[in-house]
Amino acid sequence: MIRKCLVAGVLVTLLSWPALAQDAKTVISNASRAMGANNLKTIEYSAIGADFAIGQAMNPSAGWPKFIDKTYTRAINFETPASQVNRVRVQGEYPQYGGGGQPLIGEQTQNQIIIVNSNTPWVQQLEIWMTPHGFLKAATANNATVKSQTVGGKKYSVLTFMGQNKAQVNGYINDQNMVEKVETWIDNNVLGDMLFDAVYTEYKDFGGVKFPTRIVQRQGGYPILDLAVIDVKPNAPANIQPPQGQGGGGGGAQAAAATSQKLADGVYLILPAYAALAVDFKDYIVVIEGPQNDARANAIIAEAKRLIPNKPIKYVVNTHHHFDHAGGLRAFVAEGATIITHEMNKPYYERIFSAPHTLTPDKLSEAKKKPTFETMTDKKVLTDGNHVIELHRLQGNYHNDGLIVAYLPKEKILLEADSFNPPAQPNAPTPAVLNLNNLNLLDNIQRLKLDVETIIPVHYPADSRKVTMAELLRAVGRAGSSN
Ligand SMILES: [Zn+2]
């Protein structure tokens, strides 16, 4: 009986296949006609709005920090395919709140050019195929299937095709035959298989082409882009050229080979940036900072073990939860290290570190280890009786609520992240506008009465010079003062 039912079920499924495939073609065809996609070779649109820096929140409960896009222009050539974005952005929050290059002084011009070739990463191509008209073209090219779905009481025809990264791309077609949302999943080395969606609303007609006048893109649960579209030019000339000196293809960044300097007995600086410290405790190694990604963390781990052989890495100290400073933590967990971080980060890390990493498996997803933590609030001291590492949370900070610095009192060394990123040249003049993060670091050094000679900025200058307290004092206009 059970077998008969199963057979019947298979038959029904098989019979409905041709009908479904036909439906997908019809849905795409109806949407393409309604949206004016059929003869659309290029599109150019201009907007104002905001962009947001993913992974740079003030604390693990806050959204990504905001920047104002004073102008935003995007040209897409669907035939090449290619995309060019030009935007002018300014600081979005006063006072500054979080990372992502804050404070942004004055105007910043950004250009992004993507010219698709066989080497172009799928994540870059998505910038084209997730746009409303781009999605319909990609759905056609990739033999999308369709199903009906009700979301929030609204009925959608959901077109689905498989992306080159082996994640589904879903487009939600509403009852007006407009593409209202496109969603997919991309790899984020901290968040794992991360939902990336774009919501298109307030469609208007621009010369026979329907285009949304509100665009919101989200990654990791919060907006990364929020645009009010002002003007749209269908089939405007879009001869997008690769930026000079680049093929426009992109490609994966390789981690620079680690080098190191001995700063003091048992204390090593691992370069280039992002920098880390390795300290030789009696029975184990303490590494301060596990930044960026698996590749950088593995380079730091290998160098620490070369410098301090035959001891395990017991602890990795995490300065704060920003993705560029926490992106290597997973590799340290795989290595067996315990993470020392501010207590606000522990529930966040426990949650996100258990997320699947199926799109781009990393060392931890293969090792399947559970992270272990030691947390702190304002102060924690690590010592083996010889080496002493004091960890202090910076108070009154504008960059991150749980920002920790590491101070080695015997060696008079202070490792800090994002509080003082030294200029390329050691004798650069004091900037016209003093940096709040620099001032906050100095305030905290004075409050805690730390006797600092050497600063280790995690964002280490490329010349690998010794960064002294004098440099910080110069940056805040107090050159020549004793502290
Ligand atoms: Zn940061």
What would your notes on this structure say?
The chain is α+β, with helices and mostly antiparallel strands and 483 residues long. It has two domains: 23-234, outer membrane lipoprotein receptor (LolB), chain A; 259-475, Metallo-beta-lactamase, Chain A (4-Layer Sandwich). Helices cover 23% and strands 36% of the residues. It contains ten helices and 24 strands. It has helices at residues 2-35, 122-129, 132-141, 294-307, 323-326, 329-335, 346-353, 363-367, 436-447, 469-475, and strands spanning 42-52, 66-77, 82-91, 108-115, 145-151, 154-162, 168-173, 179-188, 192-206, 209-219, 222-234, 259-264, 267-271, 276-280, 285-288, 313-317, 338-342, 373-376, 379-383, 388-393, 404-408, 413-416, 454-457, 467-468. The strands form three sheets. An eleven-stranded antiparallel beta sheet has the order 4-3-2-1-11-10-9-8-7-6-5, covered by helices on one side. A seven-stranded mixed beta sheet has the order 12-13-14-15-16-17-18, with helices on one face. The protein has a six-stranded mixed beta sheet with strand order 19-20-21-22-23-24. Strand 15, helix 4 and strand 16 form a beta-alpha-beta unit. Helix 1 (2-35) crosses helix 3 and helix 4 (294-307) crosses helix 6 (329-335). It is elongated. Residues 99, 320, 322, 325, 399-400, 418 line the site of zinc ion.
Element layout with pairings:
Layout lengths: L1 H34 L6 E11 L13 E12 L4 E10 L16 E8 L6 H8 L2 H10 L3 E7 L2 E9 L5 E6 L5 E10 L3 E15 L2 E11 L2 E13 L24 E6 L2 E5 L4 E5 L4 E4 L5 H14 L5 E5 L5 H4 L2 H7 L2 E5 L3 H8 L9 H5 L5 E4 L2 E5 L4 E6 L10 E5 L4 E4 L19 H12 L6 E4 L9 E2 H7 L8
Parallel strand pairs: 15-16, 16-17, 17-18, 22-23
Antiparallel strand pairs: 1-2, 1-11, 2-3, 3-4, 5-6, 6-7, 7-8, 8-9, 9-10, 10-11, 12-13, 13-14, 14-15, 19-20, 20-21, 21-22, 23-24
Bound molecules: zinc ion (ZN).
